[in-house]
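Archive entry. Fields below.
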Amino acid sequence: MISPIVCLLAFALSAPIAAATSQEYSFDTSGLDKRPYDLSASVELWPSLLFFNRDSDLYLLRYGHEDPAHTELYRVRTETGAEYQYRSFIASARGSYDIFHQRLDDSTSFDTKLYEGYLKYSPRASFSLLAGKKSFRWGKGYAYNPVSFAGRPRDLNDIDAALEGYWNLSAEYIRGSSGKLSALALTGAMLPVYGAVNEGFRRDTTLAGVAQLYLLFLDTDIDGYLYGDSRSDVKAGIDFAKNIFPSWEIHGEWAYAPDSRSTFFASDSVLASETRSANDIVLGTRYLAPFNTTFIVEYLHLGSGLTSDRMGAYYGALGSASASEDPSIRRATLKNSARYYSGQFLMTDYLYVKASHPEPFTIVYFTPAVYSVVNLVDGSFMGGFEMTYSRMRHLLLTARCVAFGGPHESEYGIRQAQQRIELRGKWSF
Amino acid sequence: MLRSYFLVPLIVSILSAGLHAQDPAALLEKIDRNLEPVSYEMYRKLINVEPDGKKKEFVLYMVRKGNDKVAGVFLSPPTDKDRSMLRLGDNMWLYIPNVGKPVRITSLQSATGGVFNNADIMRIDFGAEYNVEQLRDSAGEYVFELKAKTRSVAYDRLRLWASKKPLLPTKIECLTEARMLIKTLHFKEIKDFGGGVVRPSVIETDSPLYKGYKSIMIYAEIRSRQLGDEIFTVNYMSKIKELRK
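PREDICTED_STRUCTURE:
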């Protein structure tokens, strides 16, 4: 297999050819005539190197006596988008095709996703109706959005990644003004869950409705959210964001679910479910220092998260299963672990911090950043260092190194990966 | 000799009186209106030039209404396409399609990199952000010493040179409170855009903080256009490109 470094270098070396093309200081707008259609595409090469945590029970459960120290993963992602506008109607579709190869077992898998596909009717700027698959990205937090009632969880190690939407029928009304209430917007959507339609949005067949009210009041973004469905589940939430000074922003989210349901290991091989009320909170701030470094700090409280006792039962189940010779117990435990314990935040209290500094030493288009998530309950952590370089017209380069650490029986300490290094080169058309 | 002893200060006094008989704020407002209509749409190209001559270009479609509403969407390069920016008074947001929601940004950050920052791209009237501390005549040009009205303005001070006929800026120095130079903007190539808009079509910017680098802004197709307030909201940021005709 060609080294991933060689692949990405070949990719990157082709880019300076585009960057070096000489152009005059002119601006020919003839090519900017609006067309009724718009097409976009990108190809991304994504090799990564994964170092295993060979002391982890999860690793022992998965790899048993094979005992690999590391593996290489190769991903090629193709994203395409198309849009067509005819008078007040817009048809839009966007999706991806992934090829994923793991060197450890020489396996290759494929995945196709339709991120969005919808028809929108917008007779005027202030109103639109939409039917189809569209994502709702709600919330002000950078690491976690408890108010994202109609959205999918994000990847903390790739916060900018596009996310798949849900099939829905929605309407939006927008109003702006020049007073203390500078803007108002109301969005409502119906999301059916039936068979393959919106599979995974809710456990059972249901018809869900969500609503968002946005206000810009006294220079403060304020949102209110509601969720309800035909099974009588309800949720409510609010968020806000405001600049205290131009370089200092504060934000927060709160979501309340009276019937938050969780499934967990009650003992070695027995799962249990519990329904209880839960408050999820995010409080954060972003500060741009005079030396041009941006700091983000967020405190996350997940009332819906698992307690130390519940996590202790999970570690016990992993330990028992990894020591078992019964393959069905090992498989079942792995399956339940993937289904109920693979979320970004499993427990209750976290601290997220990130520092980024664009263009250090006047290296234009280069931005390094460091970030970390600390589990305040068990002391485990995830830490990352990333660099992005966007000098080329068509190519975005990203390098990232993520490490997980903590006690053997802790959220990040139990993970099967100890460290991951990845390089990404995305060529956009 | 004695006559010139009295004549020179008399002439200077008359000239100064003439200068200050024109309200400096009114002159600044006239400069603002000569640069851009109150409500308009336009295309803008930003070019970052590196010391070795290599360039990266950005093309934006921008709309503006009044003194506190500006919005724009990137049309190129492909890596930035469909990103949009919104300014409402002192508030600024950036929308990245893959993130899917607007995030608050500051005027001193840069969505494009290089010498330009967000304040340069999302500029509103000088008169909306600055008071005229001093107006003087220098080599046939007006020289305005401007002081920011609030601490939320990107540059604490501006020194603005303007030609008298036409009344348009020729150079602006952006300064800190201590009058340290941050960047210099050179206004060039006056062009008739139609609809009564005759203004510099090129702004070249250089900065002692980015030695050897320069950034150029080229204006095209400035047209008056009546726009609704709803366009200048965070909910509309993903749709700004739909305004293009």
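CURATOR_NOTE: Chain A touches chain B through 67 residues (CB under 8 Å).
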